Amino acid sequence: MKEKLQNLFRGRQGMDELSKLLFWTAIGGYVLAVVLPGALRALLSSFATMFLAVAFLRAFSRDLPRREAENLLLLRWRDRKKREREAAKDRRAHSKEYKYFKCPGCGCWLRVPRGKGKIHINCRCGYTLYRKT
Ligand SMILES: [Zn+2]
């Protein structure tokens, strides 16, 4: 039995992070569908079924480079979101000593000490802001 299962998964992608996310989203969709009324239940159930189908199609896929690239997109997106959350947490922790501005030119965060009045803030990209600290 164990050998048959190993043979089934030989050369296939298996459940990577993206497939697991799709799988658990589908399960969550089914659970949520139980409490929803008729039309919404049918819609959510069909979406959950699609997610489940894609999760298993990915798991049994033999096109490993493509599946790997798809999975990598999810992992990179997840890492970026984690870094953004940590940076926001850091800004909140230091908000009494520093004031933070987002550069309209490049979108990066600029940190200046509080209580310095109205000052010019120069960004690395060359953009200059005039803000009250
Ligand atoms: Zn900038």
Topology at a glance:
Elements: H1 2-9, H2 17-35, H3 38-59, H4 64-93, E1 98-102, E2 109-113, E3 118-122, E4 128-132
Antiparallel strand pairs: 1-2, 3-4
Bound molecules: zinc ion.
List the main descriptive attributes of the protein structure presented here.
133 residues, alpha+beta, two-stranded antiparallel sheet, binds zinc ion
Description:
- The chain is 59% helix and 15% strand.
- With 133 residues, the protein is α+β, with helices and mostly antiparallel strands.
- It has 2 domains: 1-93, no CATH class; 94-133, no CATH class.
- Strands 1-2 form a two-stranded antiparallel ribbon.
- It is elongated.
- Bound molecules: zinc ion.
- Residues 103, 105-106, 108, 123, 125, 127 line the site of zinc ion.
- Zinc ion binds at residues 103, 105-106, 108, 123, 125, 127.
Radius of gyration: 24 Å
Strand content: 15-25%
User: What is the count of helical runs?
Assistant: 4
The average pLDDT value, as a whole number, equals 93
Task: Specify the biggest β-sheet.
Answer: 2 strands, antiparallel
Overall number of structural domains: 2
Give the neighbour order of strands across the main sheet.
Answer: 1-2
**What is the helical fraction, as a range of percent?**
55-70%
Can I get a quick summary?
The chain is built from 4 helices and 4 strands; from the N terminus they run ααααββββ. The protein has 133 residues and is α+β, with helices and mostly antiparallel strands.
